[in-house]
Structures are given as C-alpha cells and as structure tokens.
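task queued by scheduler; priority normal; single chain, no ligands, no partner chains; default sampling; output format set to structure tokens
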Amino acid sequence: MNQKSKQVPLKPKAEISPAGGVRVAVVSSCWHRDIVSNATAAICAELGRTSDPPSVVDRYEVPGAFEIPLHAKRLAASGEYDAIIACGLVVNGGIYRHEFVASTVIDALMRVQLDQDIPVFSAVLTPRDFHEHQEHLEFFSAHFIKKGTEVARACVETLRSLSKLPGIKV
C-alpha cells in the first residue's frame, strides 16, 4: 500500500519557562520491560522535579523497539505533546542483526522529529553484550535509571532552548 504522508500544520507552542510544565509522551518497548521500565520511572521522576507545575507524562507501551517510531509519529502528529521520549533495549537475540533494528529505530525517530517539528528523544539502548544473568540485569537496570534521568533533562533543556528561537511563519 503506497500512501502519501499527510502534512500536519505547525502550530505555535506555548513558551516553555523554567517554571512551566510540559506534556511529554513516553513510548516504551515491552521487550525487557523489567529493565526498560526503570527509564520510564526515572523520566517521570525527573520531569516532576524539573517543572512547576509538574510535567504531564503519558505512557505508551509497544511490543518491541521496532514499533516505537510509528507510535512516536502518530503522537507527534496529534499536536498534544511538547516532546516524545522513546525507551527500549535492543539486544542480540540471534535471529537477526540487532544493529539493524537499533539503526532503523534511531533513523526513524530522527525522521519523526524533523518531519513533525517536535523534539523526539531516545533512550533506546543497544549494548554490545547482554546476557540474562544477574550481573547484567542489575547493571542495565541501574543504567536505565541513569539514562532516563539524562533523557528527561535533555528534553527539558531542549524545550527551553527551542522556545527562545524565532517562530515559524506559515
């Protein structure tokens, strides 16, 4: 099926100030949910700390990382969000090259960001080695907390920076 993509008209965004809340959609893959959910929780906690009133975070789950970009595109096109954050863990499962999946997801998220004119952030991580033993499970669980906090901070700072840029004339 060959469809033309519908162009979504740009609308002015409310100015984001250090004291203003933002509305963020977080799209997380369910694959390794026990690890990935740490990023989502850290994002919510950090966005709650960095804005007053607290940011509104809507969470969406998808089966795997490959499904994230389409959800991000539709959420961005809705006009309901100031930013989209993607979370996932892409590991070498032996079926096909995980590098391909990771690259495809990141490329698609960048395309969503540029096509829809809304910031899209990635906490979709691809470790070189991942094994489901206790040491790796603990390491990556902690690492996803760190990355969730970092991506939330990047989101807030990017929205602040974008709010200072000249507006788009349609």
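post-processing summary
- The longest helix spans residues 134-163.
- The mean pLDDT is 79.
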